[in-house]
Amino acid sequence: MACREAEFHYSSACAEFLRQSRLGESQLFLSQFAARSVRLRLLAGVVRVCVHFSGKNYFKMGLGGKQEQEYTFTLPEPEKKKALEELREDDNSREQSLDQMREWIAKHPNIKRCRTDAPFLLRFLRTKKFSVPQSCEMLERYLTIRQLYPQWFSKLDPEDKDLADIIDSGYLVPLLERDNGRKVIFSCVSNFDAHRYTSAHMIRVHSLVTEALMDDEINQINGYTYINDEGGFTMSHISLWSLTDVRNILRCIQNTTPMRHKANHFLNIAPGALKLIEFAVSLLNEKLKSRIFMYKTVEELHQNVDKKALPKEYGGEVSYQEMLDQFKAFLKEKREAILALDDMYIEIDEKNCPLVSEMNEELGMGIEGSFKKLTVD
């Protein structure tokens, strides 16, 4: 393996400490998605970090310094134009924003380990249209909810039996073709066995699928379209969700997920599903409310979604099973990177953490009462 080096200047006192500690040739093992190993060498008062990579462009988590390899924008012209017009992104703003985020991560007293590679940080910058303060806030929230709810966001292993079985069922599948450039995520609730699995399983599958997609730069720029086939929705699906689940998942989605949600389509809506959807929609901000569409038939869906993006069973050209098979192969390739997200760590005290209190306040009052009024015919 090739050895690439990056230099960091420390104070003479720090260098002397390292000399006395005999760390000059020690090995430091990093996370799976960072370098495989690091060797510290002392040369004339400069600490030289010699990083052994294994084909990945990730830098040591938490350093917040300059990456081993500079980022280069290589996407097609349409994405470059959209990034500039909609996100205020150009080479200069991108470079400055990445540097500022890395510096913020390095100085944050509670963030102990965090990815600092460009694809990861650009998730947040592009979602927040290159507002660095808002991007940093979203990153902190993202790390916090991963820490608070490991049952939903950690150990997202595509080879986990329950997760693999739910994926195999075809409950949630990213489609092959794009809708106006957007990645399409298709869900079919009838394929989710509500008698066998819990709401936690459902959330974990969504977390697994979205984590697999979020580093893709075309997805970051163009955003996502969601299509939800609610045919087969039953009382068993409603009974999966306790009030605590609803409150906590609402806290998690408040400005924490670095994704551009552009359109959410629902079809074959049963009366029970309609009640639950209406309740959920009532809690959204006006922008997201305006991006929700409901249809009685697939033909109505075709008026707003490119038919070519849909599975063959819904008017497209490629079968749902073929799309599922290709996604499973993609998940296998992404497995190591997804599992490595668990190496990130932020120290939090849930009782005294201002950010947790702020997210709780954003839920507002009266949710419990509204939820109790939800009835299903």
Automatic annotation (TrEMBL):
CDD domains for this protein: SEC14
Domain CRAL-TRIO: 160-322
GO MF assignments: phosphatidylinositol bisphosphate binding
Record-linked Gene3D superfamilies: Alpha-tocopherol transfer, CRAL-TRIO lipid binding domain, N-terminal domain of phosphatidylinositol transfer protein sec14p
InterPro entries attached to this UniProt entry: CRAL-TRIO_dom (IPR001251), CRAL-TRIO_dom_sf (IPR036865), CRAL/TRIO_N_dom (IPR011074), CRAL/TRIO_N_dom_sf (IPR036273)
Gene Ontology CC annotations of this record: membrane
Protein name per its UniProtKB record: CRAL-TRIO domain-containing protein
Originating organism: Phaedon cochleariae
